[in-house]
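Possible regression after last week's pipeline update?

I re-ran a chain I had predicted before the update to compare outputs. Posting the input and the new output here so someone can diff against the archived version. Not blocking, just want to make sure nothing changed silently.
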Amino acid sequence: MKILGHRGLPVLYKENTLQSLLAPFSFGADGIETDVRLTKDGVPVLIHDETLTNFCGAGVRVGDLTLAELKEYKSNGETIPTLEEFLKLAPKNRCLNIEVKEYEAGELSVLICKTFYEGEIIFSSFNHRLINELKERYSGLKFGYLFDEQHISMSDEEILALFDKNTYSAHLPVIGLLYFPERLVNIIKELKKREIKIVLWTVNSKNDIARITDVDYVITDDVRIFL
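New output (post-update):
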């Protein structure tokens, strides 16, 4: 089971900053999970939210700012890093889970990661259409589907059908064990029969995954819990 820091180590540092993203490696983590959006001038940057409200209290949208304008906003001296900046600093031969938040950021993120990082990279997104297109275009790379409450209406058959071809992983919310435990456990069992890797998010207690034995990756806010 690989341990990935959720947006880095957000219990200690502002999430998705270079400080946060690099911190898990010093504790021996296998890797990190981070989010990608585009600036107004088309540069992939690492931030989860659509606006800067949680980052520094500014209600401006990331997509309305050029990179130069975005870099003017800081939180405790930290700016929002570009994907390229982080990849050049990240330790090699670790695992990076790149969550693509916007359709337009998909292919560019893949190309930048291929250029600047040597190590395991899993591209994931809640936008299943984007993953469908990328996994067809880049058959040698690792792609996974993210699931949350917006996908509850999908049948088990519809979910499993996504994994028929060239899919590496399923990224499932651990909170699902609270609301539909039997269904989640059964889906995981079926996915494992198909040799699909299971990624659980966001796991902040060892007890969260006591019912599941076939977990390949855990995404956590505090990698120290598992290390």
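Follow-up from reviewer: compared with the archived run. The two ends are 11 Å apart (CA to CA). Marking as no regression found.
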